[in-house]
Amino acid sequence: MDYAQFLAMKQEIALLVVFLIVFLYDLFMPERSRRALPAVSAVLMLIVTAAGFFCDYFGVSAPTEAFAGMYATSPVIATIKNILNIGMVIVLIQSAKWANSEGMVMRRGEFYELILVTLFGMYLMISARHFLVFVIGLECASLPLAAMVAFDKSRYESHEAAIKYILTAVFSSAIFLMGLSFVYGLAGSLYFDNIYMALMGHNTKMLVVALAFVIAGIGFKLSLVPFHLWTADTYQGAPTSVTAYLSVISKGATAFAFLTVLAQAFGLFYSQVWEWMLYALIILTITVGNLFAIRQRNMKRFLAFSSISQAGYIMLGIIAYNALGVAAMMFYILVYIFSNLAAFGVIGAIENATGRVSMDDYNGLYKTNPRLAFTMMLAMFSLAGIPPFAGFFSKFFIFTGALQAASPAMYVLVLIALINTIVSLYYYLLVVKAMFIKDDECVIAPFRSACSERIGMWIAVAGIIFLGLVSPIYDSLIAIAQSSELSSFFLK
Amino acid sequence: MEITALYYLVPSLIMFCCGLYGFLTRRNMIAMLISLELMLNGVDLNFVIFNRFLFPGQMEGMIFTLFGIALAAAETALAIAIIINIFRWVNNIDIRELNQMKF
Amino acid sequence: MSPVIPVIILALPLFMFIFLGLCGSKMKHPVAGFLGTLGLGVVMVLSYYTAFTYFFSGAPEFISAAGERLQCVMFDQTWLQFTDTLYISLGFFLDPISAMMLVVITTVSFMVHLYSLGYMRDHHGVYEIGFQRFYAFLSLFTFSMLGLVVATNIFQMYIFWELVGVSSYLLIGFYYRKPSAVSASKKAFIVTRFADLGFLIGILILSFYTGTFDFTLLTSAPVEGMSGVYHVDINTAEGILSTFTSHPAPVFMGASVLTWALVLIFMGGMGKSAMMPLHIWLPDAMEGPTPVSALIHAATMVVAGVYLVARLFPLFLMEESALVIVTVVGALTAFYAAVVACTQIDIKRVLAFSTISQIAFMMVALGVARPEHHESLGYMASMFHLFTHAMFKALLFLGAGALIHAIGSNDYTAMHGLRKHMPITHWTFLIGCLAIAGIIPFSGFFSKDEILSACGSYSTLVYIWMSLVAGLTAFYMFRLYYLIFWWKEHEIPAGHHAPHDQPWTMSLPLIILAAISCVAGFIPFGKLVSWNGEPYDFMAHFDWGVASVSLAVAVAAIALATVMYRKENALPAKFKNALPNLWKWAHLRFYWDELYMFITHKIIFNGVCRALAWFDRHIIDGTMDAFAAITHKASDVIKPMQSGQVQMYTWLYVIGALLLGGITILCLM
Amino acid sequence: MDSVGSIILFVIVALSIVVFSILAVTTRKILRAATYLLFTLFATAVVYFMLDYQFLGAVQIAVYAGGIVVLFVFAILLTSHPGHNSEKLASKRRVLGLIASLAMLFIAGGSLLARCGALSVTKPDVATPDMNQIGTAMMGVGEGQYLLPFEAISVLLLACIIGGIVVARKR
Amino acid sequence: MFENILIYFVIIPLVMLAALGLCRNIKQIRAVAVVGSLGLIALSTVVLLQYLDMRSAIDAAIAAGTATEQPAMLFTNTWTWFAPLNIHLAVGVDGISIAMLMLSSIIVFAGSFASWTIKQPKEFFLWLILLSTGVFGFFISVDLFTMFMFYEVALIPMYLLIGVWGSGKKNYSAMKLTLMLMGGSAFLMLGLIGIYYHSAPEGGQLTWNLLEIVDNDAIPHGWQQFLFPMTFVGFGVLGAMFPFHTWSPDGHASAPTAVSMLHAGVLMKLGGYGCFRVAIYTMPQAAHELSWIFLILTGISVVYGAFCACVKTDLKYINAYSSVSHCGLVLFAILMLNETAMTGAIMQMLSHGLMTALFFALIGMIYGRTHTREITEMGGMMQIMPYLSVCYVIAGLASLGLPGLSGFVAEMTIFVGSFQAGMADFLAGHGSLRLVFTLVACCSIVITAVYILRVVGKLLFGPVHDDHHRSLTDATWWERVSTVSLIVCVAAIGCFPNFFSNLIKFTFDPAIFSVLGLK
User: Fold this and answer.
1) Cβ separation of A117 and D159 shorter than 8 Å?
2) Size of interface C-D (CB pairs under 8 A)
3) Which of E85, E235, D159 lies closest to A403, judged by CA?
């Protein structure tokens, strides 16, 4: 028994330490100091993040495995976790006002605890090299979220969203497990590496069905069409901070985990099976997400559909199946975190101040709250991929990664994705239009948003502006991706 | 006559499909959860069967089932908590009436 | 001769245009007019000096030892390089016809400048609005016209060709408050622009095959030992013909490519010179101030087409068919215009049709010119007629202007019996009429006679035809003359002055031009101008038979006019009633305008433009909008997916997962 | 060659799984559905026993039958109105549900049948893991040992407890 | 980084943006706009002069035997940006780019004056200058990535500029314009990435640098067949190529004055420039083989736009369709793959840029006074606002190709070049498509005259239509500055075309033509 193996899980441990501190802080501190809980958790996360960047997590410079290959970490994994950490910090900062609000005080501590646990679950998903760990990670990342979605007790929507979310989540995990049982039946093991080896030579219908179920199960978390239908309702109903968290962190983590699963367990079937499955799913996801986004008036619902189609773009990095694609995907996730959080920051600020979330409420926002409008506009432009904002670079790189394959099918796929960017530009511009061009009698009155919200938005805006222009960020990501253990799968 | 793995798989699969059917058709949310349990149970059975018949030397399937049961329990508990919450709001647990958010 | 003077000749009017255009509105009216006139006077003097030097100095670059007149490129500056060989240059080309044109243009232009000082103000001495602008435009026109005639290459000609078109547009539309003037100017520009399209394509064809725009390379050969000096050489034109025939595709749609090129170029000439069927703009152009009509639409610009054909005459000689087309177009136009002129009421319209008819005479003369017939007498005759016509037609127009200025109307019905009130106008007008009618010894007699004898030596049919037209000319001119100056004068309404002669600024040009019309016929034109530069003794070829016949025809026509219109009588009405349809058709110019209106408005504007605009808005733009609409529609169609029912969500989820697996299985099988 | 007794037992258990599953999802009375679920779970436990996984069978009965079903019953009693315990199913939904579940049966079953060669094996006669082995596996870090999932699921369960409390708490 | 003069074309606008942020009142904003655009004009002049100097110095060196050939571009410099993808910030100019830079700076200058009294000036100039940053960046870039980035930077401010400051159905137009142009750039992005992946021979270092791509000449033939249409259509949309031109009428009609000026004057040139610089430069064989498709489309554009302009009654619509026609001519000429025609195309870009900017400036000024753009509701403007009317006539004459103004030289160069190309094709038995469409395009000179004179006649001449208009005033001094600066440039090109022609022509890479066997 070598329990020292737990030391390989530095990031997870750091996170659990944060969790524990928050837990204890919430338990034992007097009510007055508990108001500082958001700040405490944000600072702690910030420390973890900074440690990730500056101390390289005490040496995760090479791929490491633990628990006989059940758990793995490597620079690329550490990086993606770091990216999630950054998003987490912003989410924590942005949630402060809401968490300290009247109705939330009772549940403030639990919110931070649960959110940290879900992040832990995502870490596990990313690092898992065994399906049991993966499943636990997946559940860990979804179940507490259901509780968080239901946090807004004063709003009926919150409950409806929660029940929709948890029912679909459990259902999808049933389907996923079904697929997994087939995989097990074929391979006789749940270790990714063993599956990879055992499936060599197999190409049965059972495998295809299993893959379809596995993809469906993970696609649920990524909100790939047609497994996405919970997304909009849940996003709309959930508290804004939770929605933000769901839309960026959860999605980013799952995307990367998805890649890991597909590459490391089913890498052999890339060109025969799952490339085509993803091909269809990406087209569906981008298109349907866009088509629904057009008609939305509720900002959160709107961003839900936008995030669905963004997930499609993220998937391009997976289907590219090369180091460029992985780097582009990480970069995309990073940029997406900042852009989406900027948007949610604005939505949250406005919701907290006025309780309004409809796009029509935003009419003429620029006249009264120019900075909020500007932030929102930058977020929209970044999401739409307009230079010089970061979204442009991430889109460009992800397309570049996808096209490295140079197959005609990939060109068609990218073309469809590109055409969809026009549709997406349309609805992002609708928001800009509402804020800058339209006018309304009942414009949201000028207000000063909370300090925490401002900090969150400033960080997000800085990211939107600088992430793309400052090239070392992407350069280092690509260096990491090229050196990663995933690269060895791409060659096979 | 020999009872092969295939025979064992039949009830498990049917259980899964029944659960699916129930989940898709029942109005009562708790009934839906019950159906979900059926599905999860079917899956568990699958694991066990595969383990026992095809890979008897190890116990991954069994362990997985063990964890699966725990997961099912956790899921159910949380789901029921939320359902009760809903019930407090609308005094009803008919899933079809939970459609305020749509389109 | 140094190139300084040519440069000044071109630059001064341009400068005057810019100067008057920019600063004119800040000046007093007379100052602007005076400056313009002065500038033009200087240009006129310099042009006279240039022409005189060219014709009479005997300098070796102008005339060879054998007495052949040479072509001299005074200067040539590359303006726009297309390829190594193809480039547009701006230069000054001096040869007999350009020297002659310098004189014509500056003379008439100066007269008009002078005349306008009086004309462009009302009876109380108040200047017209835009008086300065008027002079600026006149300068612009003069510049353009001078640039056109001294062009060293066909593209320079095209450039100035466009510029005169624009000047003409601006001047016709001078009274821009009058909708009729605006539409007339528009019509003039567009019709000539259409013709220029042909011109441009002709140039493109010609330049593609020959690889040059230069007239000197198209029609002439350099004179040994002197740079920039050339003489007309038929061998060059033959070389070009062989270039065309030796190309892989020498024939296009039944005609040789050279013919196509020449005919297209001639189309440009037809537009500017108002040949049928592109003549419709000229009568309308009379909406401009009368001095403008005199300058542009009688004396100078409208003969540009003739000048163009003359300039390329050696090339036209290479293609018999092209010359035949020139002849036919000219002959038909001459007759048509003459007939129409007999029925017009507006005196300027009569003069306009007369101009068309006379220019057609020049065209015919070029068309029938052949070296084998009297050494291309037609060419010389055409140029001669151009010269004399410019003078007497300018005279007639300026006279008409004096009448209009006095009466305030263009219709002869408002005039009648003015000979007593306006003696100077009367006598000068009469001289003009006699000149155009071809009565010895006025200038028109000589030039017309030469044209007729050139026709005669080419074909009897053309000769008889043109003689008939000459008779018609005499008839309608004297009809006009009698109607204006004879007949019973109108009552003068109380409080109005009787019409009277105009101030000296208007009378002096009339007198000068009348004097020139009287004596110009005696200029030994053949000695100065001939197609190949070799002097040509006209008197040696003079055909008294032709001369007497034409004189007899003219006299007979005048007599007929006298009988009919000497004083008010029933004859014209009887005549009109005898041939009502003919009269009506002629009066309405044989419905050419209506035909054009039909084509342009009904077919092109309504049929093409509106249809295209509709197509654009509804089909093309509709398609683009349809993309958006389809997207929205698709969004509506898939809306039920998001029904809010979890069970439907999961149903779709399952079906999606199963389809994903099922279809992949099917595809793999 | 299995004994007739085991065949009969299998048939009975399989039939009861099938029948009770169907009943559980078709019965109108929700409490009955919970009961049928209980029966199904019991039958499943019997299958586990038949496959020599005694520990698993015990867990199944204890956790599932004992824990979850009781939870269900409480929930049902908490949320049901007197006399309101039956539900009507829309036939359209039923058709859709039937389609989906039959398609699932067809595709999943078909894909299993496609591998019927490999699956047509009888129960191999090897010893199943005993409690000791299971315990070691749960606490080990080597190949085929599950300390990490074990620890992870504890975090998950903790989170679910917290979440459940927060959600269920009235305020 | 700052030793390269070209980079200042981006830095100056950025500095202007920063300065705008500090501005407190309209005077300061105006000062920033004017000083900045003057700085840009000065900068482009300096670049021009230095460029000519350097060219002649190299010529001398060649004559002396110390140099072998003229480099394709001068002032080249690259700074690594995204090293793994070999993306650089690469700059360099040749005569064409310089011409475009000068055009842009002049129009920015004129546009600043044309929006002297705009409401919300700070935001307006913010977007306007952001737009010009994109434009300048595009013209100085030789790296496909940065080029594309700047291209899109230039596109998006249009949405807000039209949406906020526009008129009429501005929302619809702004959206349509933005979406269609971004649609074009979708194809473009695909094409550019495709070019990148085939930019080097097997095993070579892939590159985004145009000059290297041209040197490598490695794009396989089959891929050219695919990538050429992508890039050409991508840029062609912005060049208002039929049938992708419909954003232009609505967009221009709704845009505020300075935006119309910049958009028609400069942005649409991005399309033509890109078609030439990217599509044809890098893929000459495909250009040669596939040019017929686009020749048909652009040939249609030329006459189609002109015909449509004939029936429109809204001044901006007329001018927008006229832009379709003129810009069609640009693409048309580029596709002739003939040096003369291409030179003409670039000159046409200059010419159209200037005169259409002038047109839009004037229309804006007239609209600002009369509050209508319907020519049926106006008339006799010459009596009311003679200065503006005269400028309008000059713009019209330039547009219909009056010698001495810029339109003539550009069109004639195009026609001569296209005709040469067409006849060469025809005589070599390659079909008569080029020839026929050259003749069709020539017809546009007549149609142009028709619609220009129609407008001039209805709008400026004739009696005053609406007596309320009599009280309107003529141009203010800032409007005069705006128009005069454009008119002077129009006349300068028209009077001294050879300077511009040589500037442009000199820089054509003969390699392209030798590939095609055309020179």
Assistant:
1) yes
2) 19
3) E85
